Amino acid sequence: MDNPYFEFRKKAEPLAKAASALTYPVLKGFDGAIKPKRPTAVRLFGVLVADVHMRDEPYRNRRLFDGLYDLENAAFPIDVLASAGDLTDHGELSEWATIVKKTGGHKPAKEIVLALGNHDTWTTTLDGDDNYDYAAELFLHFTGKLTGVPEEKVWFTRVIRGFSFICMGSESNACDGTIGAEQIAWLDGELKKATENGKPAFVINHQALQQTHGLPFTSCAGSNKDAPPDDGGIHEGSDEVRAVLRKYKNVLLISGHSHMGLSGRFTRHSTFEKVDSFYSINLPCYMFWNHDGLPSCGYGYVLEVYDDKVLLRARNFIRRVWLPAYDFMFPIR
Fold this sequence. Notes:
Radius of gyration: 19 Å
Distance between the termini: 43 Å
CATH superfamily: Metallo-dependent phosphatases
Shape: globular
Largest sheet: 7 strands, mixed
CATH topology: Purple Acid Phosphatase, chain A, domain 2
Mean pLDDT: 89
Number of helices: 6
Structural class: alpha/beta
Strand content: 15-25%
Helix content: 25-40%
């Protein structure tokens, strides 16, 4: 697809490469193209982002195009691009139309997986009320257009190169998540199938589990010392989801929602945690600046699956910069 912004980026590429050569001893990977650490050994190569919050505004369009440019100019084929919710800013028909239009003709990955976020459920009807059922209908319709794979429910599984991406979806339009008994039983069955051959499984839910990643004090609503312990994540069903996840080996829970910047050991939260017997990663907001940790926009993770481990590599997709200080790895048992 012809895009003036892409053309500008291509013309600027020689300057970026020259800057990379000069700064590599200090920055260790400035403007490095997307590729796996071990190209001949990688079994699945993907990209994880959250909170794109798309609507038709110049700065949002520019940040979206920057990320698309980075992915489309990867030095290795990307198997899957997965988003952990809030693809739109308010779930409005106009916003869905915008993202379909802006991404039309682009091929950031072989497969795209899109989970539901709370902002995607805040669609207003003609009477001015938020309507969850209408929002879910729009989500399923337009994500089907974006991925080429229509789904019947807001929770579903996609198997890509033999690895399961199990997407959950809140059953209400509350800011915090609501996961009901039917969906929890479904999750249990899907994880049993996904992990029985020893492969890792990737569970995507927009909101993190309660009391993980610094919650409730690091929720996107801001630091509230009086916040109840179940604030800022999955509100209803969190304990039940956690009980299911810990039954299985090699599970990674992927969330967003909190808009917390990349972090390791020196802030109130960690981007990556081991919870019981499984692992949890809370992705920063792609579109907006974050609080805590590294605050800038454009962050996400490159996912690399090998026979013996899962490697998660932090990257700023707008600036095309690797951030190895925030990489994580877990062994496949």
